[in-house]
């Protein structure tokens, strides 16, 4: 409602400034707090947009206005979630109605600045699916209460958004933390501990194109010319079996550190011999 009122005020102010006539109509509101026309009001007589003769004018004294303003709670707890952190109003109400979700959001915001909600929601849905599979015999499994898992989730949201982790690595980490339970730990240091774990295991995403091409080339050279020719012949197909097989091998060889889309691009760079000669000339010297 708060977002709907603000959006409608802005809409009508804009119309007045542009000299447009504000139509008398009924407007509805969507989940994002944006209003849209539902139906026209028709004529004034239809909706009695005329003074009511049986109700005398009401004079509001300044004292009444002051008392009303003083009684209004202006510091609503959810306003920051909507205005500062850009959560949709409907999701904000979910947060306020669920203490476990509120804890998850608190940890997520403590880790770093919020990412676009679409990216956050994608990983929240992934977390929900993971909890559904792992805590199959439990009720009220989501949002989880495992603090380590919540910190892992928060880091993953930020690290995948910035391109530092692949989705496959991120899912594996969340599964590991979900299955490990919630042993005693210094929760204030958990965010950094997760980064250290990623560093120690060398799980950071590989983004260097030459490094990716080298891994792809090694995989290509392990296959017969017929296999590669068959893959090239089916290039027009989006998911040919040879291509999918080679792609899986490369991702496995990289320990899931190369994103699938990067593998897609690299494979076709590598099978183009002119591209290989340019990037890896030493491999083709006699």
UniProtKB/TrEMBL annotation:
<dbReference type="GO" id="GO:0050567">
    <property type="term" value="F:glutaminyl-tRNA synthase (glutamine-hydrolyzing) activity"/>
</dbReference>
<dbReference type="InterPro" id="IPR006075">
    <property type="entry name" value="Asn/Gln-tRNA_Trfase_suB/E_cat"/>
</dbReference>
<dbReference type="Pfam" id="PF02934">
    <property type="entry name" value="GatB_N"/>
</dbReference>
<dbReference type="InterPro" id="IPR014746">
    <property type="entry name" value="Gln_synth/guanido_kin_cat_dom"/>
</dbReference>
<dbReference type="GO" id="GO:0070681">
    <property type="term" value="P:glutaminyl-tRNAGln biosynthesis via transamidation"/>
</dbReference>
<dbReference type="InterPro" id="IPR017959">
    <property type="entry name" value="Asn/Gln-tRNA_amidoTrfase_suB/E"/>
</dbReference>
<feature type="domain" description="Aspartyl/Glutamyl-tRNA(Gln) amidotransferase subunit B/E catalytic">
    <location>
        <begin position="3"/>
        <end position="65"/>
    </location>
</feature>
<keyword id="KW-0547">Nucleotide-binding</keyword>
<dbReference type="GO" id="GO:0032543">
    <property type="term" value="P:mitochondrial translation"/>
</dbReference>
<keyword id="KW-0648">Protein biosynthesis</keyword>
<protein>
    <recommendedName>
        <fullName>Aspartyl/Glutamyl-tRNA(Gln) amidotransferase subunit B/E catalytic domain-containing protein</fullName>
    </recommendedName>
</protein>
<dbReference type="GO" id="GO:0030956">
    <property type="term" value="C:glutamyl-tRNA(Gln) amidotransferase complex"/>
</dbReference>
<dbReference type="GO" id="GO:0005524">
    <property type="term" value="F:ATP binding"/>
</dbReference>
<keyword id="KW-0436">Ligase</keyword>
<dbReference type="GO" id="GO:0005739">
    <property type="term" value="C:mitochondrion"/>
</dbReference>
<keyword id="KW-0067">ATP-binding</keyword>
